[in-house]
Amino acid sequence: MATQTDTPTHAAAAAPAWHIDAVLRLGDDALVLAQRASEWAGHGPVLEEDLAMANIGLDLLGQARMLLTHAGQLEGAGRDEDALAYFRDSPQFRNHSISELPNGRGKHDDYALTIVRHYLHSERMVALWQALTGSTDAQLAAVAAKAIKEAKGHLRHARMWLIRFGDGTDESHQRAQAALEWLWPYTNEYWHDDAVDLAAAEAGVMPLPSSLQAGWLARVEQTLNEATLEQPPASAFNAGGKSGRHTEHLDYLLAEMQQVARAHPGAQW
Fold first, then answer.
1. pTM
2. Alpha carbon separation from 78 to 48, 63, 111, 143, 261 (Å, rounded)
3. pLDDT tens across 111-154, in order?
4. How far apart, in whole angstroms, are the C-alpha atoms of residue 34 and residue 29?
């Protein structure tokens, strides 16, 4: 029971919605890609890659934890990293659609597809994390300073394997090219500047996505040339994942990822 000497407590004032969404986009991408990477545990093509992809997944999960914790603090509604990871439905997630796509297009996962996606993502994230080290959001800048080191390692790994697949056997080349052609249109969403992006850039929290496109494209073109892969043609397709419009693949991913937490809410392990 309260007494006259009790001091009432109040939740911290919420940050602008655009700021919360901007951080969620980073955190949700990391979380969803961590889940996709974890699906290779015990199923990697060779033992070294089984371990490598597991470690990449752990790095991404660590980034997701820091970013979702920060998003919860900005929101000021008492939600922590677990609440944001396990108790949101797909329309509330803000990851890019490319992150939620399955590891294969048929009945079986395809390691070439996973490598192509991680390469395209990592090539973007190295540049983005570098820019974010100068963010006016001090907590985000601190996360970026740590994450950029991990992203550079992820990029080296993915680039090495992409070149190996592309410039390898006929089958490995064909698989890498097919994966690239499927994923390429989804990269358009990386560079689409919407209201959240414009507000975040104006406040110095994040760079405009479109400002990173030319550098990313130049680096990707160089890698594809080394891998003897053909860059797919440009398209007008723009997925809506970062605005909450997702593919059906995210629902299946969340159902698996969230089932234990939702079956036992509030459980302590």
1. 0.92
2. 41, 20, 39, 21, 17
3. 999 999 999 999 999 999 999 999 999 999 999 999 999 999 99
4. 8
